[in-house]
């Protein structure tokens, strides 16, 4: 099954696709999402996350001593740990599958084509590429994951194949609480190069992700870097996950695992918050 085959509005329906389910039970489950909280790091191009407890316990009590509480959440779809849908990026007015999008978008209904409702469940064999382990030191904005680096990393490891999910750790999550440093607004960011993205799509990966806000390599902050987004989202229809917390996996040396995540069913959404999980022996 190709990415084009699953690029249909399957929301509310049944998705049919092959998934290599684990043959043995897992012993550990890793939460790969950052915590959503008021004032958290967010890219200035996207609306921030905000939380308000609008109804507190005791304010409107029910009979018998019962009370309830509830909150109001506001946020951009590309804030925190999230996935980019094909409709997030266009090239020459078209998104994945050569579909024109300019006349198929409205403020309240979003994009009619390429929305997160088209994304299949992100379920399958997971692979971690640990940049600091690969480079033998902490990564810098000058460092990127190209085809050569990926071939070196997977020389003695299980190689990704059709349906795989590949996640990249740069170590940048250590700056999560330092917004400007994490976003690389003055320095740029390490990440996946175009040759690395092509190496992945040649092997039929289902989705990719990283612990940075930008996914792709952005060595110069003043130079736009979207070639990798164009290749993955527009040319290949491969979803991109960003701000994925990979510190737990790396600390335990877990490089192969079973991965699950799914986008929220947002009408016209160009992205969605996710709660990715990794299951390991």
From TrEMBL:
GO MF: arylformamidase activity
InterPro entries, sorted: KFase/CYL, KFase_sf
One record GO biological process: L-tryptophan catabolic process to kynurenine
Pfam families on file: Cyclase
Protein name in the entry: Cyclase family protein
């Amino acid at each position: 099954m190709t990415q084009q085959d699953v690029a249909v509005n399957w929301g509310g329906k049944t998705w049919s696709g092959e998934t290599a389910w684990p043959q043995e039970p897992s012993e550990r489950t890793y939460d790969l999402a950052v915590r959503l909280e008021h004032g958290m790091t967010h890219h200035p191009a996207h609306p921030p996350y905000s939380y308000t407890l609008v109804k507190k316990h005791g304010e409107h009590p029910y009979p018998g001593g019962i009370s309830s509480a509830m909150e109001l959440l506001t946020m951009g779809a590309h804030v925190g740990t999230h996935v980019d849908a094909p409709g997030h990026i266009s090239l020459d007015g078209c998104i994945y599958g050569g579909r024109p999008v300019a006349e198929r978008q409205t403020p309240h209904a979003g994009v009619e084509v390429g929305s997160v409702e088209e994304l299949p469940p992100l379920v399958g064999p997971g692979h971690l590429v640990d940049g600091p382990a690969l480079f033998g030191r902490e990564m810098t904005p000058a460092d990127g994951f190209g085809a050569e680096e990926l071939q070196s990393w997977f020389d003695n490891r299980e190689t990704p194949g059709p349906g795989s999910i590949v996640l990249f750790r740069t170590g940048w999550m250590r700056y999560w609480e330092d917004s400007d440093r994490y976003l690389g607004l003055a320095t740029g960011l390490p990440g996946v190069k175009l040759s690395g993205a092509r190496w992945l799509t040649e092997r039929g990966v289902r989705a990719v992700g990283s612990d940075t806000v930008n996914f792709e390599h952005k060595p110069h902050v003043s130079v736009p870097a979207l070639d990798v987004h164009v290749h993955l989202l527009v040319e290949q229809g491969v979803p991109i996950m960003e701000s994925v917390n990979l510190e737990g996996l790396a600390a335990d040396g877990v490089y192969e695992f079973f991965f699950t995540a799914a986008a929220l069913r947002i009408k016209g959404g160009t992205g969605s918050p996710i709660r990715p999980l990794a299951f390991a022996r």
